[in-house]
Amino acid sequence: MSIDLETARKVANLARIKVDEDRLPAMAESFNTILGFIEELNEVDIEGVEPMVSVMPMRLKRRKDVVTDGGYPEKIMANAPDAREGFFAVPKVVE
After folding, report:
1. Is residue 10 part of a domain?
2. I want to staple 28 with a disulfide (CB 3.0 to 4.6 A). Which of 8, 37, 75, 77 is the partner?
């Protein structure tokens, strides 16, 4: 697959990115380089390879699943630009 200038222009438009006309050839070339790398990856034989989360086998640390109130609501509410009666106050967004 090859990306031409028109396709690069369309991708920039869809991504809402303003790209000058003189920069479109470089952008199309970058897209083509990325697509070439993806095609190389598609050639790799992954039959029988299990998906992995990490290179090193390890268990994730776990904590007890208990309900807590946090114990410090004053500290949390101190970060709010507008707090009333223990709640975050936000401006009305729907009319």
Report:
1. yes
2. 8
pTM to 2 decimal places: 0.51
Cα–Cα distance, 80 to 78 (Å, whole number) = 6
Question: Residue 9: inside a domain, yes or no?
Answer: yes
Local structure of 83: helix, strand or coil: strand
Q: C-alpha distances in angstroms, 64 versus 31, 55, 78?
A: 47, 26, 28
CB-based contacts of 77, cutoff 8 Å, min separation 6:
83, 86, 88
**Six-digit token string for 30:** 């970058």
Q: What is the pLDDT of residue 94?
A: 85
Please give the Cα distance from 27 to 13 (Å, whole number).
13
pLDDT in tens, 37-86: 999 999 999 999 888 877 887 787 888 888 877 788 888 888 889 988 88
